[in-house]
TrEMBL record:
This is Uncharacterized protein. One of its GO terms (biological process) is regulation of gene expression. Keywords: DNA-binding, Nucleus. GO terms for molecular function: DNA binding. PANTHER family: HIGH MOBILITY GROUP PROTEIN 2.
Length: 162
């Protein structure tokens, strides 16, 4: 399928008269400089203006969207960086917590709170400290509580640095 051709050439003078040429647009023959030709030009010009305006609008939308995508990519990079920093910080804190639990369990392993609990271990240290706290709140078993306080005061927690 061949594209329609538009041919506009200079208008020659024949016997002192202006001879009108024919504009070929698709399947329509429109004589130039007639009302039909001028109306057709107005319609085509209007369509072109509309298309140019649409094109400018789309370019502006694309620019806004490109900026938005760029901002989102920067935000993702920033969040990824923060996430990796927080993950490394969490690893350090988890290591510190494990050292603290181990130190407390070793120090309190010989201090039974009741007949149910023979002493602190790494596995039960959280429950052991919770029971110790409840004892402090209820003021029961003052001797055991004072002994636990003395043991904890004597701990050297400076070696557990982050």
């Amino acid at each position: 399928v061949s594209e329609p051709k538009v041919a506009i050439s200079s208008i020659p003078y024949v016997n002192g008269k202006v001879e009108s040429k024919v504009l070929r647009q698709g399947d329509y023959d429109i004589p130039i400089f007639t009302e039909d030709f001028l109306d057709h030009n107005k319609v085509v010009d209007s369509e072109l203006r509309t298309l140019r305006k649409s094109n400018i609008d789309y370019e502006q939308q694309n620019s806004v969207l490109e900026k938005h995508v760029e901002n989102m990519e920067n935000g993702i990079l920033k969040l990824d960086s923060e996430t990796s920093n927080l993950e490394s910080r969490n690893a350090v804190l988890e290591s510190y917590l494990l050292k603290l639990r181990t130190t407390l369990a070793n120090a309190l392993q010989g201090l039974p709170l009741s007949s149910d609990c023979a002493g602190a271990t790494v596995d039960n240290i959280d429950q052991y400290l919770e029971n110790l706290h409840q004892m402090a709140d209820s003021s029961t078993q003052g001797h055991t509580l004072n002994k636990a306080k003395d043991i904890i005061r004597k701990l050297d927690l400076q070696n557990l640095t982050l």
